[in-house]
C-alpha cells in the first residue's frame, strides 16, 4: 500500500473517531443536561398545546432534585395507566413500573436512546408527605384548597374515575395532574410518581416563536 493510501485510511479513521465522540457527547448532554421535545397530548392545555416545542432541563434527574409544587415535569410513563379502585393500594399509592429490562444493551436502548419508552408531561401538585384530596371539583393539600391560577376559570378537578383521590403522598414521590383536568391521565388514575422515575423539568418553549420563553 502506498503512502497516499495509508494517509486516506488514517484520515477516515480520524473522522470516524470524531463522529463517535460527537455522538457520545450528544447522548450525555441529552441524558444529563437537557434536550428538546415536542408536546404530543392535550393533557396540559392551555399551558402547553400539542405541537409546541420545548427544552427540557434534565439536571433535576442528574442531581436527584425534588421539584417544587407547580413545576411542570416529565417522567417515565407507568406500566399501568389506570389502576382499578379494587386493586389500588392506598397505603402505598405508588405508580406501577413493571418493565423487564435486564441487560446493559436493553437499558442503553430504553433509557439513553429512549426507544420504546413513553413519557408524560404533568404539573406537580402534591409533595412527599402531603395529604392530597380531590373533592367538589377542587384540590386540597393538607386540608387547604390549592389555588391554581394556571387553570382556566371554568376548570374543575373531578375524580376522573380514579382510585387515588384521597391519599398521602409517600416519601420520595410526587402527585401530578394535567392542567386539562378533563382530558388527563394522571395521579388520580395511576398513583404517585417515584422521584427516581422523574426525567426532567420543562424549561423553555421555543416554538411557536411568539410564545418563546420560560414555561410556567
Walk me through the structure.
By secondary structure, the protein is α+β, with helices and mostly antiparallel strands. The protein has two domains: 1-32; 37-214, Umud Fragment, subunit A (Ribbon). It is built from four helices and twelve strands. The strands form two sheets. Strands 1, 2, 3, 4, 9, 10, 11 and 12 form an eight-stranded antiparallel β-sheet that branches. It is globular. The termini are far apart.
CATH class of the largest domain: Mainly Beta
Query: What is the string of SSEs from the N terminus onward?
Result: HEEHEHEEEEEEHEEE
Number of strands: 12
β-strand amount: 25-35%
Mean pLDDT: 93
CATH topology grouping of the largest domain: Umud Fragment, subunit A
Give the biggest sheet: 8 strands, antiparallel
Shape: globular
Residues in helices, as a percent range = 10-25%
List low-pLDDT spans. Answer: none
* Tally of separate helices: 4
Task: Give the number of domains.
Answer: 2
What is the name of the CATH architecture of the largest domain? Answer: Ribbon
**How many angstroms does the end-to-end distance come to?**
63 Å
CATH superfamily of the largest domain: Umud Fragment, subunit A
Classify the secondary structure makeup into a structural class: alpha+beta
Whole-angstrom Rg: 21 Å
Amino acid at each position: 500500500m502506498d503512502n497516499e493510501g495509508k494517509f486516506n485510511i488514517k484520515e477516515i479513521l480520524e473522522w470516524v473517531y470524531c463522529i463517535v465522540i460527537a455522538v457520545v457527547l450528544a447522548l450525555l448532554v441529552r441524558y444529563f443536561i437537557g434536550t428538546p421535545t415536542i408536546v404530543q397530548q392535550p393533557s396540559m392545555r392551555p399551558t402547553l398545546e400539542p405541537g409546541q416545542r420545548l427544552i427540557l432541563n434534565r439536571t433535576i434527574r442528574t442531581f436527584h432534585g425534588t421539584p417544587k409544587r407547580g413545576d411542570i415535569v416529565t417522567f417515565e410513563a407507568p406500566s399501568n395507566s389506570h389502576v382499578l379502585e379494587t386493586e389500588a393500594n392506598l397505603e402505598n399509592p405508588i405508580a406501577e413500573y413493571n418493565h423487564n429490562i435486564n441487560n446493559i444493551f436493553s437499558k442503553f436502548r430504553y433509557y439513553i436512546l429512549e426507544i420504546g419508552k413513553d413519557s408524560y408531561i404533568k404539573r406537580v401538585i402534591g409533595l412527599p408527605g402531603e395529604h392530597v384530596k380531590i373533592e367538589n371539583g377542587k384540590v386540597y393539600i393538607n386540608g387547604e384548597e390549592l389555588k391554581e391560577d394556571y387553570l382556566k376559570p371554568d376548570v374543575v378537578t373531578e375524580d376522573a374515575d380514579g382510585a387515588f383521590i384521597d391519599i398521602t403522598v409517600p416519601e420520595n414521590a410526587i402527585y401530578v395532574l394535567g392542567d386539562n383536568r378533563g382530558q388527563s391521565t394522571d395521579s388520580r388514575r395511576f398513583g404517585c410518581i417515584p422521584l427516581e422515575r422523574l426525567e426532567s423539568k420543562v424549561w423553555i418553549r421555543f416554538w411557536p416563536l411568539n410564545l418563546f420563553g420560560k414555561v410556567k
